[in-house]
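Weekly structure sync, notes
Attendees: PL (lead), two postdocs, one rotation student
Agenda item 3: pending single-chain targets
PL asked that the sequence for the first pending target be pasted directly into the notes so everyone works from the same version. It is reproduced below exactly as submitted, 175 residues in total.
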Amino acid sequence: MKDGILEETLIHEASHTSLDAAHANAAGWRAAQEADDEFVFSWARDFSTREDVAESFLSYLAVCHLADRIPESLAIEIREFIANRIVYFDTLDLDLYPLIPRPLLAIKSLYWDRTNGKLEFSRNSVPNTKYFIELSSNLVKWTPEPFGLTASDSEMPRSIWIATKQPVFLRILSP
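Predicted structure, written out during the meeting:
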């Protein structure tokens, strides 16, 4: 801790437990490694099947998501050394929350037709993400709407029919 690298050490070790088994010997990872032909750290080069995923993932996070924490010259060097491994990590579509905040999603428009029980709303969304709608009358017991939806754009319009005239709470979830 006196070196100020606690966060980096935790990410490195978490990479071992979360990524190594599925990726260290994966064909795509090995191809990216060979195409790069460089390593960010000698430790990763010397123990490429055991340490490269963890060392490269830490570098990937720094360059692609936390660039304000490292010097620009280091970011350029990392991008040159492990360009293909960076692309590999990008294709994994990893959920990096809470380290990397998720985009804020909000209702943009809302219309409730009490007579017909129709609720229309529009909200911003993440394209190609599946969402589920749940309804509740008491905020304790939630009932899923039978059909989920997948956002095709950055805005997701939706209409649902609610068979009650009582107040209803709505929440939108993504897995």
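Discussion points:
- The mean pLDDT is 85.
- Residues 1 and 7 are 9 Å apart (CA to CA).
Action: rotation student to compare against the earlier draft before next sync.
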